[in-house]
Amino acid sequence: MKRQINTIILDDEPFAVRLLKDYAEKVSSLNIIYAGSDTYKVLELLKEYTNSLVFIDLQMPELSGIEIMEMRNHSDHNFIITSAYQEYALDAFKYKVIDFLVKPISFQRFYESVEKYLAWQKSFETASNYTAKSRDFYIKAERKIYRIIPEEILYIEGLKDYIRIHTRTDKIIAHENMKDIIKRLPKNKFLRIHRSYIIPSGKIKMLEGNSIYLHGDIRLPIGETYRKAIKAKFN
């Protein structure tokens, strides 16, 4: 029997809570641990039940859905938004939400959202299997899931709260930071040369002054903080 997914439903409308709970009870892969409107109870549950699936409304009387996601942004919880206000979708997707369900929500749309979550989970299981053999990994970007092959990376560019991964065929923008992405790359094969640039050391063509040239006529600056370490490595 497959492991059930711990599921939380948070909405300030009793009708919406009953409807979503009824939907969730029809999906055998979901295990409802809470369905209600108590935001503070949900915050406590999120500490206890890691890697849970949360259906969350944005408009709440005490803490908004956005505020809760901000508080739990670095956790393993996965959020599906349930809201009557579609204009909030862009802001919501900054928090790596799985889906945005616009009220009124049909069972078909609810089920599709759960399936999307299951596919997302499966992709990371697959990524773990790949990692055991190589260092390929998966990243969520632009509502899609990309397989990243380190050997195909030309360089990675930091864009404040986002990164842009330059490969031979794509420029993938993801809501990640430079500190976290370098941990997912093969050790000793990538260098951070600037607060805004990570490069594959195997693609370095030349060092000139405070610039590094990569194969493919790519020229990138070396940040002042990194100059001493980079030049020592070349020496």
From TrEMBL:
Residues of the Response regulatory domain: 6-118
Residue list for modification 4-aspartylphosphate: 57
Pfam family, one: Response_reg
Keywords: DNA-binding, Phosphoprotein
Keyword field contains ATP-binding: no
GO molecular function, one term: DNA binding
Domain HTH LytTR-type per the UniProt entry, residue ranges: 137-235
PROSITE patterns xref list: HTH_LYTTR (PS50930), RESPONSE_REGULATORY (PS50110)
InterPro entries, alphabetized: CheY-like_superfamily, LytR-like, LytTR_DNA-bd_dom, Sig_transdc_resp-reg_receiver
Gene3D superfamilies: 3.40.50.2300, LytTr DNA-binding domain
Protein name: DNA-binding LytR/AlgR family response regulator
Organism: Mesonia maritima
